[in-house]
Amino acid sequence: MSHGHDDHGHAASSGAVNPVALKGCIYLLIGLGIAALACGVLPYVVLPNLGYGIAVPVITIFGEPLVKDTFLGIKFTNTLVALVLVDIIIAVIAYTLRNPQRVPKGFQGGFELIVDYLYGVTKNVVGPKDARKIFPLIATFFLVVLTANWTKLLPGFETVGALHCAESSDLVTMSGYPIHVDEGSLPFSGSALSNIHFLKVEKGLDSGDKATEAGYEECEAKYFGVTHEASAAEGEALTTDATAPEGETTEGAQDTATEETHEFSEAADRLVVTPFLRGAATDLNFTLALAIIAMFAVQYYGVQKLGLGYFSKFVNLPALGNLGKKPMGLMDFVVGLLEVLSEVSKIISFAFRLFGVIFAGGILLIVATFLTGALAPAAVYGIEFFIGAIQAFVFFILPLVLINLAMVSHHAEDH
Q1: What is the rounded (10 degree) CA torsion for 40, 45, 46, 48?
Q2: pLDDT at 187
Q3: By the 8 A CB rule, do 86 and 148 touch?
Q4: Do the domain assignments include residue 393?
Q5: Same domain, yes or no, for 105 and 128?
């Protein structure tokens, strides 16, 4: 026995390789190779050489309009399209679960698990009696926000859209890129998808060229046939100057003018993409509308529970009328007026909390993709997945707590 132990110790001291450690080393090297390919070679060497490097999307706080001129004068934005998609998804879920199975399984089982948990939280906060009437509204908040936050992580969001010229204005000055105009270089040339174009990015970390007002007008004329007033005036002057002298044919002069009017500078090749879909929660209009609905619901359930006496917490007339006996009632009246500001501030807090977190997450994904290529953003995706769920729960629990506080009489201690 002692001899066997001596052999084992001799093998260990002789530098024998641990097969498990060797396998781990091989896996590590493979992982480092994939990381180097996805985060270095692919985004900074392969794709730029092919002209399909990573372009930086235009980052704007407001939703980009897809259709500016509608019969109602309302801009049809990409965030509105995303919200319509969210509504469709929720409608499909409702249609799918219209005839629930007695023994839930699969998607129904997971959905019921979430609903049961949320309903249990609602009962614990407001009680079983009030939970039945409050739960549908706040559960809708959760479902809409969760769906909006998770759909924005789908491929194609904020990357595929309508091509247009980069603009230079007081609101935002865009950076643009040229496009692949050589038909031989387009992957869909000669097919039904031949109208699909890609931005031409030929070097890594290329943030594009800043647009100018003159370049925007040239771009509009070159790619979309839109002639602005200044460009039209220049064209007329060019045609006049190019008029043939006596003895020359008019046709030759017109050909010369046509050739000169089609000469464009490099500033004309600055185009950007307005995505067809952008996360609804990255639009302040959406989060503000949800916040207003939530705070209106707080006031509604408060009045429903306490009657018109609910408004005494804002305008405390009993405290003002009882100043002779309780002079400190004046302070209660002033505090009530401050409650009005508090309710308004909650609307702002609700709106900017959700908007800020989701908008910042989208920018983080853009930056991570631009700087590190294809692999590293996967970790950000995982974080954004959980943050989207957390923010949906926050928009569920905060209105619930405020509704519960509104339904409790603030004069309960007097009784």
Answers
A1: 120
A2: 55
A3: yes
A4: yes
A5: yes
Residue 147 contacts residue 94 (beta carbons within 8 Å):
no
With respect to residue 382, please indicate whether it lies within any of the assigned structural domains: yes
Question: Considering the domain boundaries, does residue 154 fall inside one?
Answer: yes
Find the radius of gyration of the CA atoms of the chain: 32
Task: Give me 308's structure tokens.
Answer: 């018109």
pLDDT digits 0-9 by tens, 53-94 = 988 888 888 888 887 666 666 778 899 999 999 999 999 999
- Domain containing 300 equals 62-160+276-415
Residue at 273: amino acid letter: V
Tell me the HSE value of 304 on the side-chain side, using a 13 A CA sphere: 11
Is position 262 within any domain? Answer: yes
pLDDT in tens, 274-331: 899 999 999 999 999 999 999 999 999 999 988 887 887 777 666 666 666 666 666 7
- Residue with the two structure tokens 């249990």: 120
For the chain, how many residues are written?
Answer: 415
295 with 378, same domain?
Answer: yes
Q: Whose CA is closest to 269, among 368, 371, 166, 198? A: 166
| Cβ-contact 377, 275 below 8 angstroms | no
pLDDT above 60 for 336: yes
Largest interatomic CA distance in the chain: 119
CA-angle at 174, arms to 196 and 273, nearest 5°: 15
pTM confidence score: 0.80
Ramachandran sector of residue 225 (left: φ over 0; alpha: ψ -120 to 50; beta: rest): left
Question: Based on the domain organization, do 292 and 398 belong to the same domain?
Answer: yes
